[in-house]
Design goal:
single chain, 283 residues, Rossmann fold, Pantoate--beta-alanine Ligase, Chain: A,domain 2, 2 domains, three-stranded antiparallel beta sheet
Amino acid sequence: MNVVSTISEIRSVVKQLQLKEQKVAFVPTMGALHGGHLSLIQLAKKVADHIVVSIYVNPEQFGPAEDFGSYPRTLERDLEFCIQENVGTVFTPSDEVMYGNEEKFFRIEIDVLNEHLDGGSRPGYFQGIALVVNKLFNIVQPDVAVFGQKDYQQFQVIQEMVNEFNHDLELIMAPIERAEDGLALSSRNAYLSETEKAIAPLLFKKMQESVAEIHKGLLKPESLLSRKQKDLEAKGFKNDYFNVYSMDRLQPVSKLSKKETYILAAAAYLGKTRLIDNIIFEC
């Protein structure tokens, strides 16, 4: 397995592979790899000859009061994980490699797609993601990139960026990987106490209950969703959002239409841990 940390190194590796007509799939991560990342890598293996994984904790997507300093960094374990999964190349850039030390004059602005969900709760979050992913795509220049459904808003933002900025690659979305109790896998789950770990799966359960009620013909789910949030609050969750949104523009939907596809997305704090999850469903 190649482990490279400079732009010239990763570009050389990818260029040589593509000259040999090998298809390169890219899985960008912030490290602290787990089963969710494994599902992305396994999907990448199905569509490409060589897998590139990046490990980089991007400071631009963290707000001033967020957990950039404490975000789990487990590079040695992550590299072992990648070796076990037969990853071809791991790109581990520094902040200096990614952003340099000189004054910057450009930034990425986003309209509509980041008004709600995490975009509404975390100002600047998706601008930071779009910036780093745009840079990573330009640096690595893969044929395919794989992202997870758990961060569906992220996927939609990046898909639109690919379209509008004319990146020559295909995006693939992998399904959410869950623990046996239904909790969506996340690096931040490491913050949960043992007591919180027992409670955390309730978020997904309440989402499943909501979708089941909608499938019975409930087309105006506002009161239902409000009731489910109160159920979560009673168990110690601090709700951020719990609502149905349109798939393309990620706008809240108060009245559903038959045979349309929507996404029920939720975010809530349990102690200091922020959990997010979603279910894509047809009404």
